[in-house]
């Protein structure tokens, strides 16, 4: 009988972002106090799981979210660039309706193709690198559980890829709340189950693609 291997994709906790900008890959965006609490809640919820591998995006908020899990399971956090946030042309700018960058005509040429999308990293490339990260996690944790800390858009994109759905979508309908777990269960190379839960009870879309 083939042993099951589980891969949890964990979105980081809430980020301190008083300016409400799309921070993307910008440095210096750490978890808020609430985000730190969310990370601890997830670690507590996973305390009894057989996690043997812990990967995380190199960005500060992901590393901070991974830290309590690393402590509770006595693991070293392995940074994986394939788990990083999606690149975005609007990093550092406000995205609010009516008062953000999208109201300026200079931004409009970047919006010509929402199916790729034209303003950032192509969905196909996000799916490809996230698939590599998941594969690496599976290989390192065969027969056990791996946890990968990443970001909303990469997690949602690879989920849609694995489910055989189109890549383009309405960002407001992503099922990927703060500190949420998207769980993949494999028998060998075959995905047999996909689950979603929010152990920190933290549904909050925030800025899309964070």
List the helices and strands and how they pair.
Elements (H helix, E strand, L loop, with lengths): L3 E8 L21 H13 L5 E6 L3 H14 L4 E2 L43 H18 L4 E6 L1 H11 L18 E7 L2 E8 L13
Parallel strand pairs: 1-4, 2-3, 2-4
Antiparallel strand pairs: 1-5, 5-6
Descriptive overview:
About 25% of the residues lie in helices and about 20% in strands. Helix 2 links the parallel strand 2 (about 50-55) and strand 3 (about 80). It contains 4 helices and 6 strands. Helix 1 (about 35-45) packs parallel to helix 2 (about 60-75) and helix 3 (about 125-140) crosses helix 4. It is globular, with a radius of gyration of 17 Å. The longest helix is centred in the middle third of the chain and has 18 residues, at about 125-140. By secondary structure, the chain is α/β, with parallel strands linked by helices. Strands 3-2-4-1-5-6 form a 6-stranded mixed beta sheet, with helices on both faces. It has helices at about 35-45, 60-75, 125-140, 150-160; strands at about 5-10, 50-55, 80, 145-150, 180-185, 190-195.
């Amino acid at each position: 009988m083939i042993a099951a291997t589980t891969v949890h994709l964990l979105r980081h906790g809430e980020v301190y972002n008083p300016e409400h900008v799309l921070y993307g890959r910008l440095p210096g965006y750490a978890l808020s106090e609430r985000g730190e609490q969310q990370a601890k809640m997830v670690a507590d919820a996973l305390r009894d799981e057989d996690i043997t591998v812990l990967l995380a995006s190199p960005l500060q908020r992901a590393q901070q979210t991974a830290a309590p899990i690393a402590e509770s399971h006595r693991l070293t956090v392995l940074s994986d660039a394939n788990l990083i946030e999606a690149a975005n042309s609007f990093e550092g700018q406000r995205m609010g309706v009516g008062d953000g960058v999208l109201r300026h005509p200079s931004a409009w040429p970047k919006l010509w193709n929402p199916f790729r999308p034209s303003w950032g990293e192509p969905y196909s490339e996000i799916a490809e690198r996230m698939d590599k990260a998941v594969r690496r996690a599976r290989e390192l944790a065969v027969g056990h559980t791996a946890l990968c800390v990443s970001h909303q858009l990469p997690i949602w994109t690879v989920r849609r890829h694995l489910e055989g759905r189109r890549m383009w979508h309405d960002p407001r309908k992503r099922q990927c709340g703060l500190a949420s777990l998207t769980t993949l269960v494999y028998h060998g190379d075959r995905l047999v189950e996909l689950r979603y839960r929010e152990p920190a009870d933290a549904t909050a879309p925030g800025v899309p693609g964070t």
